[in-house]
Specification:
The complex is a heterotrimer of chains A (358), B (512) and C (305). Chain A has 358 residues and is mainly alpha-helical. Chain A contains 13 helices and 2 strands; from the N terminus they run βαααααααααααααβ. Chain A has helices spanning 13-37, 42-51, 57-82, 90-107, 117-143, 147-167, 202-219, 221-231, 233-239, 243-270, 281-291, 296-319, 325-346, and strands spanning 2-7, 347-352. A two-stranded antiparallel ribbon of chain A has the order 1-2. Chain B is an alpha/beta fold. Chain B folds into 2 domains: 9-237, Rossmann fold, CATH 3.40.50; 255-346 and 422-499, Rossmann fold (3-Layer(aba) Sandwich). In chain B, the strands form 5 sheets. In chain B, strands 13, 16, 19, 20, 21, 22 and 23 form a 7-stranded mixed sheet that branches. Chain B starts with 8 loop residues before the first strand and ends in a 13-residue tail after the last helix. Chain C is mainly alpha-helical. In chain C, 71% of the residues lie in helices and 2% in strands. Chain C has 13 helices and 2 strands. In chain C, helix 6 (141-159) runs antiparallel to helix 11. Classes of the chains: A mainly alpha (358), B alpha/beta (512), C mainly alpha (305). Chains in contact: A-B, A-C, B-C.
Chain lengths: 358, 512, 305
Amino acid sequence: MRLELIPRPNVSPVMRAIAPVIAFAVAFLIAGFVIWLMGRSPVSAFQVYVLHPLADTWALQELLVKATPLALIAIGLSYCFRANLWNIGAEGQFVMGAILGSWLALATHGTDAGPWVIPAMLVLGVLGGMLYGLIPAFLKTRFGVNEILTSLMLVYIAQLTLDYLARGPWRDPKGFNFPQSVTFDPAATLPAIIEGSRVHYGALFALIAVIVTAFVMNRSLFGYRLRLTGDAPRAARFAGFDPNRTTLAVFAISGGLAGLAGIAEVSGQIGQIQPSISPGYGFTAITVAFLGRLNPFGILAAALVIALTVIGGESAQIMLKLPLDLTLAFQGILLLCVLSADALVSYRVRLVGRGAHA
Amino acid sequence: MNSTTPALVELRKISKRYGELLANDGIDLAIAPGEIHALLGENGAGKSTLVKILYGVIEPTEGQILWQGRPVTISSPVEARELGIGMVFQHFSLFDELTVAENIAVALPATWTLSAVRARLGDISRAYGLSLEPDRAVWTLSAGERQRIEIVRCLLQNPNLLILDEPTSVLTPQESEHLFITLEKLAADGCAILYISHKLEEVRRLCRNATILRAGRVTATLDPRERSAREIAALMVGNEIGEVKSSGVHEGQAEILSVQNLSVPPAGLHGQALIDINLNARAGEVIGIAGVAGNGQSELFAALSGETTVESASAVIINGKPCGSFEIDQRRKLGAAFVPEERLGHAAAPTHRLSENILVSHHAVGAVSKSGFVVLGAARKLARTIIKGFDVRSPGEDAQARKLSGGNLQKFVIGREIIRKPKLLIVNQPTWGVDAGAARLIRQALVDLARAGSAIVVISQDLDELFEIADRLAVIHHGRLSPVKPTPEWTKEAIGLEMLGVGHDREAGHAA
Amino acid sequence: MTTFEAILLTIVTASTPFLIAALGELVAERSGVLNLGLEGMMAMGAACSFAAAVTFDSSLIGAGAGALAGALMAALFALVVLGFAANQVGSGLALTILGLGLSGLIGAPFVGAKRDPIGHITIPGLSELPVVGRLFFAQDLFVYGSLVLTLAVAFFLHRTRAGLMLRSIGENHTSAHALGLPVLRVRLLAVLFGGACAGLAGAYLSLVYTRFWSPGMIAGRGWIALALVVFAAWRPGWALVGAYIFGAASVLQLHAQAAQFGLPSQVLSAVPYAATILVLLLLSLRHGRAIGAPGSLGSPFVPER
């Protein structure tokens, strides 16, 4: 027995659009089965994972807070993935953005500095992520080093740097030996969009990034350049698009957006430097980008959906004693399903038995 | 054919359907032992599809194969080889990084060890004049040597039937003659040969029986020596043969392209270097560059187009402007246009629509982009103009490039450049793998552009094409270009010698 | 036993999982499949082997369970990238995410359990020799196994017909298909072998190296093993050299931390990751673009019928 793939002569746009939805449903069924195997009720898990987070305004706000970094990073990654470049180090760029931005927050701590602090922090955050993202891009364009491995190795280095800062030089001396910095001043805190809510300006940045990206991808020569580079690299060269400049540009953009997400998370959500500031947003965003089919609005929707399962995972841990790793496993399954669905949009699968005309 | 001879293999009503396209439509074919049977037809007539079915690579939609009188199902090349069918592919099925012996052993039954292959290689080489070094890596070999590997692979299994798909397309005239002698020896030993070609001359040289295909159907089975070339050509391409008119002599016209001492180091492990290329093209003139594939044609194209740049600006001068160091879109701005060899993936993005594919070569020079933005309306309009002007038949209004047939996409790609009215057009293999009608249209379009005052450089493996349209000709071999001489001063034999690198105009000793 | 000897011994222990995982991935990549899910398969191997070893109180069963878990993960990967021709890079990442999550679920009940060291095989006489005796002639089964595996993989790739087929398929799957070589079947087997090796490497980490299970214990070793394959230019002998260099680096940074040179521990912990980047860089400087990479690596194959 083996599978045989037959190219579909015509790929319907409808199918292309609903493929991620089907993938999502299949992933849910598999996850439900795993939960059932663990001796729990899939139905109550579904309630906790999906319905609870939508139940009250507090949870809805939490949803936006979690979706913000996912959307920002995934939008950035979509630039890379469109051009068929594999930045899988967004987690590190997120952390580096947070570090560089927080440096200003800590340097100005207690000095009564003006309202310029938070914009400057955001700029530094973008810069930190951008420069860190440019390292693998530079190694690739200048020396031909595979970007997948270098960008990933840099994640570990960024995390260790953050760990060192939080436990060492940036530790709050009055913090009872807890490995964390002082709490940022109000001037170094990213404000909420609506007074009293938990949704900070990062959500607005994400929305702007989505709209700008939609415009860039569909209307600009740069967006065309990325698509051509990704779909037909030789044709892109023939068009006169230097692949090295493309590589540097997309890594700068995705690094910058991850850095922005990082500093927004620290200054708008956490409020201080800790040894770990991300539950793996940089990796989860890869799933988000693919689930959103690299389409900006798709990514926005996917970020919300994935954020839902992240929050669901947290409440499931508390209410059902289901481990957080279940969410991670679910994301892995989901990504596999999405990628398979992508392929199955272009191919029809036929199961061929042994002995048939092969 | 003598009807009393029992057929070795017989194809009955073979059909192969790809979606809408009927690549093979009820084909009948029979071959006797020891017979050299030609399968003639234009590119796209369905020859390759048919032999892939016979070799078990693809499965027929309908029809039956009889092997020595009994029906068989050939579901993989392994089964084909077990029956005694060997195949030499047009685009070789070789592995560049492996050695000659490894390349042969991997296609043989498991009983063959590497040392056995090495031992038998010597015998076969002597018997058929196919000399090969067993431990050379394939990427170091010439096309002729590579083909020998494919043939030896088959011969080691003592085949009853040997299929060759366009075997001379990568060979010089001299290498081709060598191949014919080998094939005749084989046939004399009782091996049947199915010889696929679109070149009439060599079929008449080699075969007594020919099956002619057109658009997936058999139009005739005949003895090619008994019919006139015109008659056979009509069966192959229908009635649309026309002649292309060349454009004349152009002394004293403005020099549009001048290449002076252009040298480019090889790109990567397997690349071909360009060595001291000198070439010029005047307004109104078509320059032809002949040569066996893999002798630096792609590299020359890249160096002229600016996909590869050189430090010396004056190595390439377009329209009086030294631009050796310019990128491709800067050269386009000087009035140059380019058509690469590969249509899908190089000239056009397969999954992009035709209107988007306009942008590939127009984004820096046309009205389809404006201050960093794409003007889709203008691109669509231009695509429609090209489709109309160059008779591009495409499924749907604005189809994806990959949905077009080879000939139609090539017409689109050529049209995309000609519509810019370039002062200089560089084309690599303009009619490679396209049907006769499209090829004629393309050649005529090139000649018309030259008449209108543009300079054109055509790099081609098709000698007939070059003799037809080029005013002056040169041959590229191992990255060196022969002197450029007016076409009437060349004979086919002289060109053949240059293609082998033994032309008398060259200094001795560089042919290695 | 001197400190020096002890360090040498731990280097062997630290290098062995790198070697086993890299060999498996090397075979898969030589067939043309890039499986970035090494980290996830190793995580599953570590968790499943530990769970099985504790449950059945047998390290042998544990090792078997680890290899099986890795192979099952690889089978899932194969279904997606070979069966559905999905993107290999994305699917590999997904496999890593899945493996990290699933291994957490499987390992959680076993946090806190501890395994006894597994037996070493001493060769009487030789193992009494100073320094080299303990190092070469009194190791555990995995260490000997990994060395034998290196030889076996090298022999298989370059001296057997099946190895020749596998290399051909990785080099050019279109040609291989035209000759009738079973491209997808060979790739499936290569991927499964790679998964079993990764699972075994994970098993070694939890059963021998740490002798307990903890979440995140693979700590990027899968990614380093991937880099090792590039370092080795897809040749088993160089994978052995590379594995021991990286093993040594990871052990020495631990000792450097203990010695307290005044450097923060995080700097030393970063050494293996920084070293990986550096090694990849140096390789590229010497050879230009990745040398020895199989021609069809990472590209999906759909046979034309």
